[in-house]
Design a protein that fits this description.
Blueprint lengths: L8 H6 L19 H16 L7 E3 L5 E2 L5 E8 L2 E12 L5 E8 L9 H5 L13 E2 L3 E6 L5 E6 L4 E6 L2 E6 L6 E2 L38 H4 L9 E3 L2 E3 L8 E7 L4 E4 L23 E3 L21 E5 L4 E6 L5 E6 L6 E7 L4 E6 L4 H12 L12 E3 L7 H13 L6 E4 L20 H9 L4 E5 L3 E3 L5 H9 L13 E3 L2 E5 L6 H8 L18 E5 L26 H22 L9 E3 L11 E3 L7 H16 L5 E2 L1 E2 L8 H12 L4 E3 L17 H14 L1 H14 L4 E2 L1 H4 L13 E3 L4 E3 L9 E6 L4 E4 L4 E4 L5 E6 L7 E4 L2 E5 L15 E6 L6 E7 L13 E10 L2 E8 H4 L18 H5 L4 E8 L8 E3 L6 E5 L10 E2 L2 E10 L4 E5 L1
Parallel strand pairs: 22-23, 22-33, 23-24, 24-28, 28-29, 29-30, 30-31, 32-33, 43-47
Antiparallel strand pairs: 1-3, 2-3, 3-4, 4-5, 5-21, 6-7, 7-8, 8-9, 9-10, 10-14, 11-14, 12-13, 14-20, 15-17, 16-19, 17-18, 18-21, 19-20, 25-27, 26-27, 34-35, 35-36, 36-41, 37-40, 38-39, 38-41, 39-50, 42-43, 44-45, 45-46, 46-52, 47-51, 48-52, 49-51
C-alpha cells in the first residue's frame, strides 16, 4: 500500500490520499549520503592513483592461529593509516566448499553490529574437518574439492583474499584496495580561535610575525581531506545525529572471469545487472539496498525499493560463483566491467562487520544449493495459496465481500482468497474490526470458508497510540516498542495517525506477539474475532513512516540491545513476517501452514511466506519490469513472489488487464490488487470477449496447480527457484545470459514468454538448444538449434506464448472448480511431450496441502517416464518417495517411506483420466496397459519429435486408462 510525505497530519487523517507520481527527491542519492559519498570518493582516488595505489590493510603473519581440527584460521589485521587500531580476520571453509570471510574491529571504543548473519542463517554452518591451511612467507592458502580444484589464497600485504578454481581466480576481495573499515573514534573538540590583543603604544618596535604551519593530514591520500558527514548529516528537514561517528565499510569484490552478474534484489531493472560505474555506465547511481516505501517506483532505476537481499551471482559460460554479504545496514553497490569477461563491484555499507560468504559453485544449481544451506529454502506453501487471490483497497463491508464471492461463482470463475486492506480496522487499529461496516466478521469469514476459500487480512507494524487499543497499550507497558534517540517511545505517523512500532529484535516480544493471534479466549487479549481461515498480510514493514526521513524511521532510533536502527534497518521487516508466520502456524492445536505476505524482506525471508513487488503502476512498463523483479528476487532465494495484477495505481484498459492476468497466472504468487481511487476491476466486471479471456486464464492457472505445487516441493528441498531464467536452465548458452522476458517453470519443461507490449500481435521467443518444443495449446512443433534460435509467432490477445520442452511430462487437472480445495479428488491428465530421442519424464507431488504431515511421510511423489523399448514406447509411473525418501521434503531426511500412508489412502481412487502423447513417429498398432487389455485411443498424424521439420505434431489421445495416481503402472504404445 502506498504512503505519503508528511504534508500535514490533519489532512492525512481526514482525507484519503490522492495518487501522486514518484518524488525522487524524497529519497537520497549517493551524493546525498555521507558514507556513500566517502566510499565513491575513495574509489575515485584509487582510480586516479592507478598502479601507485596500495591498500593500507595488511595481515600480521605472526598472529595467525590455525584451528587444529577444522578448516579455520584467525589473524590480526592492521591499517598503516591507524597503527594503534586493531582488526581481526577469520576465514572458515564449510563442508560444502563455501568460504566465510569475517573481519571486525577488535578492542575498539564500541562494538560493531555483528548480528546480521544470525538473523539470516538457519543454523551455524558446519566447518570442514578435511581441509588444512598452509602458511607461507607471503600468504596462507588451502586447497580443497573432490579433485582439489578449489583454492583460497589470503595474501598478507596488502591484504587480499582470492577464491580460485583450477588455478583461475574466480572471486577477489580487496584486489583494487578499496577495503576500508572506518574505526570507532572520539569526536575531536572543536578548535576555537582567539585574537591576540593589539600592541599598545610604546611597547616596542615592529611586532614579530609568527607563521604556524597547518597540520598535515597524513590520511588524506586514502580518506580525503575533510571529515565528510562523520558526526552529523542533514537530508531535507531531518538531521541524523550519528552519535557513534563514522563506521562505514567499503570493500571491492571482483570477478575476473565472469562478465555477467545477477541478484542484489530488489531493484526495478534488467535481470543481468547494468553497469553503474566505469566507462559509459547505464546508470549513474549505485544500486542501493535500503528497504523503502517507494510507491510508484520508476520502471528502470537502481533506486532501492521494498526489500534487500545482498546476494550476487557472477556468471560465465564456464562457471558460476556467488557471494552473500551478511550486512543489515544501508548499502550501495557499484558495478563495472573492465572487459566483457570480467566484473568489478564495490560495496559501501553504513555500518556492520565484513561477513562475506563466497560460494564456489561451479554451476547455478550448486550456487542455489549452497545459498539455501545458509539461509534456507522457500517454504512449501499451503496448496490453496497457489490459487488466485482477489484484493483491493478496500472491500468496504461484510456484504461487499459476500457479493464479490457470489459474482465469482455466478460467472464460474475460480478464486481461492479474498483480501481485506486497512479499512476493515476501526481507526486503523489492526485486529479491531470496524463494526459499522463489518458487524459480523466471524460469520463473514465462515461464509467464505464454507465454499473452500480463505481470507487474508492486513496487519501493519505501526500501532495507534491510544488508550482504547489493547495491542498498543500492552506493547508499551511491556517495553516492546522502538525507542527514539533520547530513549523514550518513538512516535511517528502512519495510517493510524500517531503511531508506535513493534521492536521484534526484543526476544520478549516474540511470544507476546504470537499470542495476539490466538482465536480462543485466554487470560490476555487476543484476536478472538478471527478464525483459522484468516491469514495475514504484512505491509508497510520497511518500516514506512510518513513523517520520517525518506519515509522511514530515523537511523538514530534505538532497538533492543542498544543497536541503532541504521545497523539493522534492512533486517527489520523480515522479523515482522517471521513472527507473524509463526503466530499463524501456532494459533491452533494442530499447526497448519500459514500464509503471510510481506512487502519488506531480507536474506532468509523466503522461509516465512510470500512477497509482492509493491505499489506498481498500471502501465506496460511496470508490467514488463515486474517479470524481471520476480526473476531477480528468485535469484535471491525468494521464489514465492509476484506483482499486483493490473497495477496498484491506475485504470488499465481491457487489453492491458488481459495481458496482466497472463503475466500473473505464470508467477508463483497470483494476486490482483488495486488502489482505493481506481475503478472496480474484478474480472467478472469485464465486457466480452475480455471476460471470457480472463476466465480462461484463471482456469489455466488452476489446471496447472499440480505443476506449481510440484515445483514448490522441488525448490523447498533444493533451493532452485520456481521461475528459472535461461542462465539457470542453460548456463553454458551465452545467447540466454541477458534474457529476462521468458523463463522456465522449475523442472517441469514449461517455457513461458508473457506478452508485455501494447498492441502486440506477434512475439519472438528464444530456444536455447537443439531440441523440439511444442506450443502448449496447439501442439505446433518448433525446433531450436545448438547455438540457440529466435522464433517469431503470432500472439493474439487471447494467446499466451507457452511451450513444452520435448522430453517433459506435464500433469494437469482439467475439471473446472470454484477453488483449489474442490480439486483434491479430481482425476489427472498427463501430457507427454516426446523429445527428439522419443523419451520424456515428469514428476507429481501431492500432500494434504494444509498441515505439516508431509514431514512425517504423508505424501505422494510420483515419477512418470516415457522410454523406448524396442519398437515400443513404455509410459510408466513409479514411486519416488520410496526410491528417494531422504530427498522428499525440506528439513526432514526420512529414513523410509510407506507408499500406503494415510494421505495416499485418502486419494486412493484418484486416477489418470486422459493421456496425450505428442510427437510419435507413426500411428500405433496397439495401446495397452502392460499385461492388460487394449485401451480406447485416437491418433492424429503430424510432425514427429524426431523429424527435422516444423508444423502440427502428431497426437495420441488415450481415453481414461483408469490407472491410479498412487500406484505403479505402465502403458505400452506399440
Amino acid at each position: 500500500m502506498r504512503s505519503l510525505n508528511y504534508l500535514g497530519i490533519l489532512s492525512l487523517l481526514l482525507a484519503v490520499p490522492t495518487t501522486l507520481s514518484l518524488k525522487t527527491q524524497d529519497w537520497k542519492t549517493c551524493s546525498q549520503s555521507g558514507f556513500c559519498r566517502r566510499g565513491r570518493a575513495l574509489s575515485a582516488r584509487a582510480k586516479e592513483a592507478g598502479l601507485q595505489w596500495n591498500s593500507p590493510y595488511s595481515l600480521d603473519p605472526s598472529s595467525i592461529a590455525i584451528a587444529t581440527d577444522q578448516a579455520t584460521f584467525t589473524a590480526g589485521v592492521k591499517s598503516s593509516l591507524y597503527p594503534d587500531v586493531n582488526f581481526g580476520l577469520e576465514l572458515r571453509v564449510h563442508d560444502d566448499g563455501v568460504v566465510r570471510v569475517r573481519m571486525d574491529e577488535v578492542g575498539g571504543l564500541r562494538k560493531r553490529y555483528d548480528e546480521a548473519a544470525s538473523w539470516a542463517l538457519i543454523a551455524e554452518p558446519i566447518i570442514s574437518k578435511d581441509i588444512k591451511w598452509k602458511a607461507g612467507k607471503k600468504d596462507i592458502r588451502a586447497v580443497y574439492g573432490q579433485k582439489k580444484e578449489n583454492e583460497v589464497v589470503v595474501t598478507f600485504e596488502p591484504l587480499r583474499v582470492a577464491l580460485l578454481r583450477n588455478g583461475k581466480e574466480q572471486v577477489v576481495i580487496n584486489g583494487q584496495g578499496l577495503l576500508h573499515m572506518e574505526h570507532f573514534r572520539n569526536k575531536a573538540p572543536e578548535v576555537t580561535h582567539t585574537e591576540e590583543p593589539a600592541p599598545q603604544e610604546g611597547e616596542g618596535g615592529e611586532a614579530q610575525v609568527v607563521i604556524q604551519a597547518e597540520k598535515t593530514n597524513i590520511h588524506a591520500w586514502f580518506e580525503g581531506e575533510s571529515e565528510d558527514a562523520y558526526w552529523e548529516e542533514t537530508f531535507s528537514s531531518w538531521t541524523d545525529s550519528k552519535p557513534k561517528g563514522p563506521e562505514s565499510l567499503s570493500i571491492d569484490i571482483n570477478f575476473p572471469t565472469h562478465g555477467t552478474v545477477y541478484g542484489i534484489p530488489q531493484h526495478a531493472t534488467r535481470l543481468a545487472l547494468p553497469t553503474t560505474a566505469g566507462e559509459s555506465p547505464f546508470f549513474n547511481e549505485p544500486y542501493r539496498l535500503y528497504n523503502a516505501d517507494v510507491f510508484e517506483y520508476l520502471a528502470s532505476s537502481p533506486m532501492s525499493i521494498y526489500g534487500s537481499i545482498p546476494v550476487l551471482h557472477a556468471h560465465s559460460a564456464d562457471s558460476t560463483v556467488g557471494i552473500f554479504h551478511a550486512v543489515g545496514s544501508e548499502t550501495w553497490i557499484d558495478i563495472a566491467h573492465a572487459s566483457d569477461k570480467s566484473t568489478e563491484t564495490h560495496w559501501i555499507s553504513e555500518s556492520g562487520i565484513l561477513d562475506l560468504f563466497l560460494m564456489p559453485g561451479p554451476t547455478p544449481e550448486d550456487i542455489f544449493k549452497q545459498y539455501s544451506r545458509l539461509t534456507g529454502t522457500s517454504v512449501l506453501p499451503a496448496h490453496w495459496s497457489l490459487g488466485y487471490h482477489q484484493c483491493r483497497w478496500n472491500y468496504v463491508s461484510s456484504d461487499d465481500v459476500r457479493t464479490v464471492q457470489k459474482r465469482f461463482d455466478e460467472e464460474d470463475m475460480p478464486v481461492d482468497v479474498f483480501w481485506l486492506d486497512i479499512e476493515y480496522a476501526e481507526d486503523h487499529k489492526y485486529f479491531m474490526w470496524d463494526k459499522k461496516n463489518f458487524p459480523d466478521p466471524v460469520e463473514m469469514v465462515n461464509d467464505v470458508a464454507a465454499l473452500g476459500r480463505k481470507m487474508v487480512v492486513i496487519v501493519d507494524p505501526h500501532l495507534k497510540r491510544t488508550s482504547d487499543y489493547p495491542v498498543y497499550q500492552k506493547a508499551s507497558e511491556l517495553g516492546f516498542l522502538v525507542k527514539s534517540k533520547s530513549g523514550g517511545e518513538y512516535e511517528g505517523w502512519c495510517w493510524s495517525g500517531s503511531s508506535a512500532w513493534m521492536d521484534f529484535f526484543h526476544p520478549g516480544a516474540w511470544t507476546w506477539w504470537k499470542g495476539l493471534f490466538k482465536i480462543q479466549k485466554g487470560d490476555e487479549w487476543s484476536w478472538t474475532e478471527s478464525t483459522e481461515a484468516v491469514h495475514i498480510w504484512n505491509d508497510m514493514n520497511e518500516p514506512s513512516v510518513f513523517n520520517g526521513p525518506e519515509i522511514t524511521m530515523p537511523k538514530d532510533n534505538i532497538h533492543h540491545g542498544g543497536w541503532e536502527h541504521r545497523d539493522l534497518h534492512n533486517i527489520n521487516g523480515m522479523l515482522y513476517s517471521n513472527l507473524t508466520s509463526q503466530a499463524v502456524a501456532e494459533r491452533s492445536t494442530t499447526p497448519t501452514r500459514p500464509f503471510v505476505l510481506t512487502r519488506a524482506f531480507y536474506a532468509g525471508s523466503q522461509r516465512f511466506g510470500a512477497m509482492w513487488t509493491g505499489d506498481n503502476m498500471g502501465t506496460w512498463e511496470h508490467m514488463a519490469v515486474g517479470v524481471k523483479i520476480v526473476l531477480s528476487v528468485s535469484i535471491g532465494g525468494f521464489s514465492f513472489a509476484g506483482s499486483d495484477v493490473g497495477g496498484f495505481f491506475g485504470n488499465p484498459d481491457p487489453e492491458m488487464l488481459v495481458r496482466w492476468y497472463q503475466v500473473g497466472a505464470f508467477a508463483p504468487f497470483f494476486r490482483a490488487h488495486a488502489h482505493i481511487d481506481t475503478k472496480r476491476r474484478e474480472p467478472f466486471l469485464l465486457d466480452q470477449p475480455y471476460k471470457g479471456m480472463v476466465k480462461d486464464i484463471l482456469r489455466l492457472r488452476y489446471s496447472l496447480l499440480p505443476v506449481w505445487y510440484t515445483a514448490f516441493r522441488e525448490t523447498s528441498v533444493t533451493g532452485l527457484p520456481v521461475l528459472r531464467p535461461h542462465y539457470v536452465a542453460f548456463p553454458k548458452d551465452q545467447g540466454g545470459f541477458d534474457i529476462d522476458d521468458q523463463y522456465f517453470i522449475a523442472s517441469s519443461g514449461l517455457l513461458v514468454k508473457p506478452v508485455t507490449e501494447k498492441g502486440a500481435t506477434e512475439t519472438t521467443f528464444y530456444l536455447p538448444e537443439d531440441q523440439v518444443y511444442y506450443d502448449y495449446f496447439t501442439q505446433q512443433v518448433f525446433r531450436g538449434a545448438a547455438k540457440g534460435r529466435h522464433i517469431t509467432i503470432p500472439t493474439a490477445l487471447h494467446h499466451i506464448p507457452l511451450f513444452v520442452r520435448g522430453g517433459s511430462i506435464i500433469p494437469t487437472r482439467e475439471r473446472h472448480r470454484r477453488s483449489s480445495t474442490s480439486m483434491h479428488q479430481d482425476p489427472f491428465t498427463l501430457r507427454v511431450a516426446l523429445s527428439k530421442a522419443g523419451t520424456a519424464r515428469g514428476e507429481l507431488y501431492l500432500d494434504d496441502g494444509v498441515t505439516y504431515d508431509h514431514q512425517k511421510g504423508q505424501f505422494v511423489w510420483r515419477e512418470f517416464v516415457a522410454e523406448k523399448k524396442s519398437r515400443a514406447i513404455r509410459l510408466s509411473s513409479k514411486d519416488l518417495g520410496a526410491a528417494r525418501p531422504g530427498e522428499a521434503v525440506d528439513g526432514v531426511a526420512l529414513q523410509a517411506f510407506n507408499p500406503a500412508n494415510e494421505y495416499a489412502k485418502s486419494i486412493a481412487d484418484v486416477r489418470v483420466e486422459k493421456v496425450v502423447v505428442v510427437g510419435l513417429t507413426e500411428r500405433p498398432k496397439s495401446v495397452k496397459i502392460e499385461g492388460g487389455e487394449e485401451l480406447i485411443w485416437e491418433f492424429a498424424p503430424g510432425v514427429a519429435a524426431s523429424d527435422k521439420k516444423e508444423g502440427p505434431a502428431s497426437i495420441l489421445h488415450i481415453k481414461d486408462p483408469k490407472v491410479l495416481i498412487t500406484k505403479d503402472w505402465a502403458i505400452v504404445i506399440q
